Amino acid sequence: MAAVPLPQPDKSTQPRAKISKLPQKPLTAQQLKAIQLLVQGNTTVQVAEALKVRRETLWRWRELPTFKAEYEAALADYFADEKRTLLQLRMKAWKTLNQALEMGSVRAAQYVIDQTQPEDDPSKQAGEVDVQFGAPLDSEDGELDFTEESPA
Fold it and tell me: How many distinct structural domains can be found in the chain?
């Protein structure tokens, strides 16, 4: 049995991909600044205005393989830094909560109980009022304030 030839696409109607066979040039200082501004969350319009270039120029840069690679690397670094910062803040929060518990803070203890108690815990009776956690931030240093409020 003879193989049936597959239909070939009409090459005259197929869009041509623009593939540069020339070596990629290193990014300019302006392109590197664009990457920095984009990673910081600025819009294309904001970056174009800040660099005094047209939006089309910025979009053209974004299509360059070297620009794409540098942008992806900068974005990965940015998110790694953000994750590290959040983990450090989490550790600080745990230390603050632990200090409050060590000082005998009922509010801190109730917070830990509330946060670790399953929602479907049968010990919570219908109509039972829980002590609410409401430790405000201390305006002076941004720390959580677990000090006991004096009865009014």
Answer: 1
Contact 64, 104 (CB under 8 A): no
Query: Tens of pLDDT along 6-65?
Result: 555 555 554 444 545 556 789 999 999 999 999 999 999 999 999 999 999 999 999 999
Residue range of the domain that includes 63: 29-116
Question: Looking at the domain assignment, is residue 47 inside a domain?
Answer: yes
d(CA 109, CA 91): 18
Contacts of 89 (CB under 8 A, 6+ apart): none
Measured between alpha carbons, how far is 89 from 96 in angstroms, rounded to an integer? 10
- DSSP designation for 131: P
